[in-house]
Design goal:
Elements: H1 4-14, E1 21-26, E2 30-35, H2 43-47, E3 54-58, E4 61-65, H3 70-79, H4 90-96, H5 102-114, H6 118-136, H7 145-159, H8 161-172, H9 177-187
Antiparallel strand pairs: 1-2, 2-4, 3-4
Length: 188
């Protein structure tokens, strides 16, 4: 769909308007919404929108799968329609504590911590696999500088994983990310 502004406007209308949105985030392919009133969420109409691949509703979190263009739709919702992105408002975060069962809230919090780190872990793992293949078939010398630089790059994500987790946890718990990173850095 070439007109993302129209898509963003239609999505906003079918979720109950900007006043119904408690928080809005996105991952690689989907918009993640927390709504103040879930009864205003029109799943059937959203499923039929041109540009929407799938709509998922789970444990008071609503997801609209858009695909690779999700960042464009998210940016339009934040900039042109005035939706507050990334962090839930204070009233919404208080009400989230009372919604859903304990296990569901625990898994939602764990996923909000781990999902942002997954691309870095996947990239580092792919680079490690690439280096193993290259060194196994003797396309690259393990004593060479190219191998050492690429190995250091792939190992850095795993070495500094506590710092990545500290930053991600701080965002999930609405703490100051740099203070969290500094504390974990002192432990390292």
């Amino acid at each position: 769909m070439s007109n993302f502004r129209l898509l963003a406007g239609e999505i906003l209308e079918l979720i109950g308007g900007e006043k119904n949105v408690g928080s809005l985030t996105h991952c690689i392919t989907r918009l993640r919404l927390s709504l103040k009133d879930g009864t205003k969420f029109n799943k059937a109409a959203l499923d039929n929108l041109d540009g929407v691949i799938l709509v998922v509703e789970s444990n008071n979190q609503y997801q609209v799968v858009i695909g690779n263009d999700v960042s464009t739709v998210y940016r339009l919702l934040v900039e042109e329609f005035g939706i507050k992105g990334d962090a839930p408002s204070d009233s919404e975060s208080e009400s989230d504590g009372k919604k859903g069962n304990m296990v569901g809230r625990l898994f939602n919090k764990m996923s909000s911590i781990l999902v942002p780190i997954v691309p870095a872990l996947a990239g580092a793992g792919m680079l490690k696999a690439f280096l193993v293949i290259l060194s196994t078939y003797h396309f690259i010398d393990t004593a060479g500088s190219t191998y050492k630089i690429l190995a250091a790059a792939s190992n850095s994500v795993f070495y500094f994983l506590p710092l990545l987790l500290a930053f991600s946890c701080a965002k999930a718990f609405n703490a100051h990310p740099f203070v969290s990173v500094a504390i974990v850095g002192a432990f390292l």
